[in-house]
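2024-03-11 09:14:02 DEBUG pipeline.ingest accepted 1 chain
2024-03-11 09:14:02 DEBUG pipeline.ingest length=228
2024-03-11 09:14:03 DEBUG pipeline.predict start
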Amino acid sequence: MPKKQTKKPTANEPTTKKSLSKQVLEKAVPQKAIKKPLPFFHPASLICTFFGVGKIPFAPGTFGSLAAMAIIHLAMVNIELYMELKLAAFAAICFGLGIWACKPYTEALGVHDHGSIVIDEVVGQIVALLVFMVGPIIFQATVKPIYALQGLEWLTLTVVSIYILLFVTFRLFDIFKPWIIRRVQDNMQNPIGIMLDDVLAGIASGLTCAAIYLFFMILVVPWIGKPV
């Protein structure tokens, strides 16, 4: 009686349920996605996470923006001469360092634009302030005269409102990424793209905030009195 022929498994065919599960897992989770991240104190890790801010387990981008707002406030309070230029220089340095650091950091994680990367939010939030202040020259045209008219309490209220407007508008543009911001994120899958989409979000935030604030001042100032 002839022996029953049994089909030998090929090299690409799993022989057990265990091997089948392993094959499915390997297809679902690429090897790049399970690489070991860089140590916390690695220079690229410190830069990308902005000294650990990005390691916060929830809403790291929001905390990155808050860290930038803290830097902005310290600059506005302590720097009297060329504050805008110094903030711009700081943002430019962070932008360059971010481009350098994102390459080894993302390669180690195997994920493009990982959520723990917040150096782009820091740069974008500062860009939002610079566009608001330097572009439309809102401070020189409207805000500073009202400071002189209303005193310290109005100054505090005005600065707080600017902080809130800048923070909220930037976060909205960064989260929803309309138009060209989305195109940059989708089409530039590299360190420059990681940084650039937040810079564009900062520009959009600064212009939007300036338009809102100028509109508010045009409507409110006549009811307060003429600025001195």
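2024-03-11 09:14:41 DEBUG pipeline.report Residues 36-135+151-206 form one domain.
2024-03-11 09:14:41 DEBUG pipeline.predict end
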